Amino acid sequence: MRAWVREAVRRIEADANRSADTHLHVFPLPQEWGVDLYLKDESVHPTGSLKHRLARSLLLYGLVNGQIGPGTTLIEASSGSTAVSEAYFARMLGLPFVAVMPRKTSREKVALIEFYGGKCHFVDIAPDMYGEAERLAAEVGGHYLDQFTYAERATDWRGNNNIAESVFAQMRSERHPVPAWIVVGAGTGGTSATFGRHVRYRRHTTRIAVVDPENSSFYGAWETGAMDYSTGMPSRIEGIGRPRVEPSFVPGVIDEMLRIPDAGSLAAIRVLREHTGHWAGGSTGTNLYGAFQLIARMLAEGQAGSVVTLLCDGGERYANTYYNDEWLAEQGLDLGPQLALMEEFLRTGRWPK
Fold it and tell me: Which of 96, 122, 151 is at the close of a domain?
């Protein structure tokens, strides 16, 4: 068993060493604004999303805690991207993997999980996936990876090449090397916890803003302080937003939260593509929309500086949904007003009231 675990850890670490750090792209803003916007491109990981980091951490956490051994079936509750990355690592270690997912998860993500040898187990009601994942793990004697509980503790926020350490290292030569704001969404809450803890540990003045889509519980919990706050409704923005507050959500390290309209998130990814050529998923749009609002505030207050956010995954996973005008119409989403709002911001630096 110990020999197998040593080899498993070696393989995962070797995969990390083979992957160069992810890029930090500049979003073009007028030089005279004195504010720079960067997007950390997590879509270039081997499995195409920010969740590659989380999956690696969760597998290592299970291995070093004696929860994963040869032949252990890995189970996860996921809206897609985490399961894609976990399936990749499960195949690397020769372990069976089952993703418990909402039936509405994009076809592209389902295909990727199956490509890596994973199996998909669907539930009709998104909140049911937690209990179903626990049941399956108990039934087969497997290990429930449980990203929503362990994301914040599986990642070392002090260093060890986490995403926060990487961002600050890449910013060292920029004109505003310490960001005024870092803007992230919350799916598990693990990313905001990592950034929030890291900036405090390193004594940076950077503030952390978490953007939350429609139907999500995180904003309500942060605003009211009620950690049992629940909407009971799924998010249309895959990868972020939850019907309940997840255990990995750490509100004490967050400086501000912004509620983002879904039409704004999906309009923002089209603005991103037009201005940079990058094709991203909906959660990136949520991030970008929030970053624009904070930049407008900085300009109104005469503040120079930098803002960093994340390009979470590629847009090819959403060709049949977020980039499909028929799907948008079925959802009752009109992107026109939001597109006009953002183009006005990019011309003037002002965010309409």
Answer: 151
